[in-house]
């Protein structure tokens, strides 16, 4: 109920035009590539009364289905993608789908370096299943007995296996009659966001034994380590990151976007002022240190990111 009241209170106050930084108002900077530079455009939040009424209705509907969505999560197991002479691992995930036979578009969710936690699941499931998407949350650590992979050495040791997990999840979804395999995106957080950017390189599949038609069609990366990524994404990509993130700095993503240039599918980066690493995860409230970095949930940034993610996926998968 607190979540419903907070959401609807935000909608009501938004019925007046506002232009602020931080909570409500100008929540982010959209960085879009033009020529050889990156342009920063303040994003103003201007919500009229009818829009506020619609937002209140959406809040109530989301609250009403939240418990049902949580109950609909099904644990599944599948093989990660094999490499030549290297078989895939048996891994597990959590699957949720909208009511009906489909076929539906789908999203493969990739967790951060400290694993998949209870508080992360409901938000992403609520955001996507209510919008008509199948969601498969991939757990890369449970079956492998890994608690966390947040050190540099641990991250380097697991990254290739995590890419194979993403392609294994894609192959699993291809076997489900309720999934439209031509409309599948990857969405990852922190280390999972880095994996998302890696699978967004359309040549990344070449190291794995997967059917040639199995490809991700769009990518959403929350606070990814852009400095560790390589070639330009070959599919539409959305990056959502905090301006004061001291773990995966937004400046790294801005520089990477410039180096990638403008030739190819669209790449959009949204930077949230005054926002830290982990802003989408309610587990990080209050904020605290995690592996030497500050992590903190930001409800306003998370709400805005949810809207942008859905709009981005609706545009590129439908």
Name the poorly predicted regions: 1-26, 32-71
- Biggest sheet: strands side by side, in what order? 2-1-10-9-8-7-5-6-4-3
- Order of H and E elements: HEEHEEEHEHEHEEHEEEH
Please state the average pLDDT score.
80
Largest sheet: 10 strands, mixed
Shape summary:
globular
CATH topology: Rossmann fold
Count of individual domains: 1
* Level-2 CATH architecture: 3-Layer(aba) Sandwich
Range of strand content:
15-25%
Which class do the helix and strand fractions yield? alpha/beta
**Fraction of helical residues:** 25-40%
Assembly of the depicted chains:
single chain
How big is the Rg?
19 Å
Overall number of strands: 12
Number of helices: 7
Structure commentary:
The protein is of the alpha/beta class. It has one domain: Rossmann fold, CATH 3.40.50. Helices cover 34% and strands 23% of the residues. It contains 7 helices and 12 strands. Helix 3 links the parallel strand 5 (104-110) and strand 6. The longest helix has 23 residues, at 49-71.
Outline the secondary-structure elements.
Elements: H1 2-13, E1 28-34, E2 37-43, H2 49-71, E3 74-79, E4 90-96, E5 104-110, H3 120-129, E6 134-139, H4 152-174, E7 179-189, H5 191-199, E8 218-222, E9 237-242, H6 250-260, E10 267-272, E11 288-290, E12 293-295, H7 299-317
Parallel strand pairs: 5-6, 5-7, 7-8, 8-9, 9-10
Antiparallel strand pairs: 1-2, 1-10, 3-4, 4-6, 11-12
């Amino acid at each position: 109920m607190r979540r419903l009241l907070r959401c609807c209170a935000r909608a009501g106050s938004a019925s007046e035009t506002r232009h602020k930084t931080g909570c409500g108002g100008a929540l982010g900077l959209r960085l879009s590539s033009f020529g050889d530079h990156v342009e920063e455009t303040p994003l103003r939040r201007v919500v009229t009364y009818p829009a506020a009424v619609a937002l209140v209705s959406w809040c109530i509907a989301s609250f009403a289905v939240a418990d049902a969505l949580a109950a609909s999560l099904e644990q599944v197991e599948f093989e990660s993608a094999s490499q030549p002479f290297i078989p895939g691992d048996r891994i597990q995930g959590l699957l949720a789908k909208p009511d009906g036979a489909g076929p539906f578009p789908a999203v493969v969710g990739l967790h951060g370096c400290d694993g998949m936690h209870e508080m992360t699941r409901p938000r992403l499931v609520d955001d996507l299943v209510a919008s008509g998407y199948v969601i498969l949350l991939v757990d890369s650590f449970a079956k492998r007995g890994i608690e966390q992979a947040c050190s540099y050495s641990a991250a380097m040791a697991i990254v290739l296996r995590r890419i194979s997990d993403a392609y294994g999840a894609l192959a699993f979804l291809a076997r489900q009659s309720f999934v439209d395999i031509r409309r599948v995106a990857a969405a990852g957080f922190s280390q999972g966001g880095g994996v998302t950017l890696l699978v967004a390189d359309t040549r990344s599949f070449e190291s794995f034994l997967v059917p040639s038609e199995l490809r991700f069609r769009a990518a959403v990366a929350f606070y990814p380590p852009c400095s560790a990524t390589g070639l330009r994404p070959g599919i539409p990509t959305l990056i959502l990151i905090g301006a004061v993130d001291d773990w995966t700095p937004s400046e790294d993503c801005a520089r990477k976007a410039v180096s990638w240039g403008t030739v190819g599918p669209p790449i959009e980066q949204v930077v949230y002022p005054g926002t830290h690493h982990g802003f989408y995860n309610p587990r990080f409230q209050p904020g605290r240190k995690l592996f030497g970095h500050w992590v903190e949930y930001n409800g306003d940034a998370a709400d805005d990111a949810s809207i942008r993610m859905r709009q981005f996926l609706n545009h590129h998968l439908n």
